[in-house]
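>> received
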Amino acid sequence: MKLKLLFLIGLLLVILSCNTNDENPKTEINGKYIGIFERNGKNSNVELTFNDGNWTGESEIVKFPALCNGRYSYTANIITFENACPWTAEFDWSLILGGEWNYSFNGNLLILAKKNGDKYTLTKQ
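>> returned
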């Protein structure tokens, strides 16, 4: 009897310790967002759309930030962007949406922040 009880407790602990959130991120981020991009006190109106691992975007100011389209994935509080567009060399390529960003998602508000201080504040439409 004790052996069965210990086995059930062990099985329960194994099941509870499994976390599938990192492997299967939530899809509530899907949708169209409108907001602002900020860098060093300068702002631009932007629009980003997320759809099952694909993103598209536009900016009011050409190449500030540089938005086009690509793929994204996310786990925990990090979203990683891959940009699929070719770019010319006459501007600061750090403005291209790519790489890892911290994000917070609360209701309709999505905030993306990069270590260099860049920030998107977006509202889901």
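>> The longest strand covers residues 42-51.
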